[in-house]
Amino acid sequence: MDYYADDYPDTPLDEFLAVYERLTKYAKREIHDLAESLATGGCVAEESSPIQPD
Predict the structure, then answer these.
(1) How far apart are CA 15 and CA 41, in angstroms?
(2) Which residues contact 41 (CB under 8 A, 6 or more apart)?
(3) Eight-class DSSP state of 53
(4) What is the pLDDT of residue 45?
């Protein structure tokens, strides 16, 4: 999903960039954690078990 400062004209640019940076760091961390979990065959959600192929 792309976010553009022009879409939020009432938000000061420095505030927009600060929020955008935090969201980007969070998304990268979540993607990394998911990829790591899938690579090791771990569960993605808490209290879930991997689906076994038939």
Answers:
(1) 39
(2) 50
(3) P
(4) 57
pLDDT, average across residues 35-54: 67
For residue 7, what are its two tokens? 């879409």
Single-letter amino acid code for the residue at 29: R
Buried b (16+ CB within 10 A) or exposed e, 15-45: ebeeeeeeeeeeeeeeeeeeeeeeeeeeeee
Q: Is pLDDT above 60 for 1?
A: no
Q: Give the model's pLDDT for residue 26.
A: 93
Structure confidence at residue 47 (pLDDT) = 55
For residue 51, the 8-state DSSP code is P
Give me the count of residues in the chain: 54
User: In sequence order, which ranges of 1-54 are alpha helices (DSSP H)?
Assistant: 13-40
